[in-house]
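Let us work through a complete example step by step.
Step 1: write down the sequence.
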Amino acid sequence: MAVHIREADLHSDRRLIIDFLYQHLTRQSNGHRFDWLYLNNPFGRARVWIATDIQTWSAVGMVSAFPRRVYVKGREELGWVLGDFCIHEKYRSLGPALQLQRACFAAADSARIAFCYDFPNLSMMAIYQRLQIRPFGQIVRLARPLRVNRKVREIVKIPILAQGLSRAGNLLLRLYDPYPRVNQALTISFLDGKFGEEFSLLAQEVGRKYEVCLQRSAEYLNWRYLANPLNHYEVLTARQGNALLAYVIFTHTGEDAALVDLFGIQDPEVIKSLINYLRVLLRKRGVITVNISVLASHPWIALLQDSGFKAREASPVIVYTSSPSIIEPMAFDPGNWFLIQGDRDS
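Step 2: predict the structure and record it as tokens.
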């Protein structure tokens, strides 16, 4: 089956992109998501490539690239995070998928994009393997149990008995970890309103200390989290006096919560205090498990494990750079990256 690859026009192809994603990738695809994710990104509009069957001229696949400003050894570069890759079920041979991905990478080479990164699933990894692109690292999910209710329900099928055992188990958990330590010199509170200039200043101060780190400007954070039409996010900040030191961005849905971004000065005491404060808050809300997904080489893995987080499943991360790249071979050392769940797109 022969296909033609073309770059989409975000205005004339708007309805096509929304409908194709809705049918083949996510039921969250609608006009609000498209405007937010594809048009309103402060780092630039998304780019999209569409595969079309040359006999029917109907869309059979697409892939998107979302711009990111990134600090690379202290200087600003433009990168792409790849996403919204999907293929019509009748065309899920490697041929159309390979052509789409090659078109995307060719455009990255032409535009002198510093690098592209992706969080592929297993089927997507087959495409990258054919392109001779290997995982450069692993994203690992770490989980911290706060209550035992769900585990007890899985084992004990009598509701009244399960409730009693859950109360006892939760009491034991609190006795084991009654008062998570929070530095009293810090003021930890919810962000009231939008991200301000102090977040941009913190991004510059801290982000440039890492070899590779997403630029977390106030403009970006307001778009990524507060304007997001798909999820509701909450923000806790840690301050000393009037100085912003760190923040955590999280979601809470039902019995689970997820830390999607955790950023701040390189002081373990500050970061651990912020995590501990959030643990107490979420336990009071009745949350059973709090999760965080970070690069396996993330500098705060040990700190998270000290706070009771346990590693669960892992998934690959790939990085593509043009050849010759302006950042190779540094890009292929995961120890150089500050990468967390919020650095991908919804």
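Step 3: interpret the result. The two ends are 31 Å apart (CA to CA).
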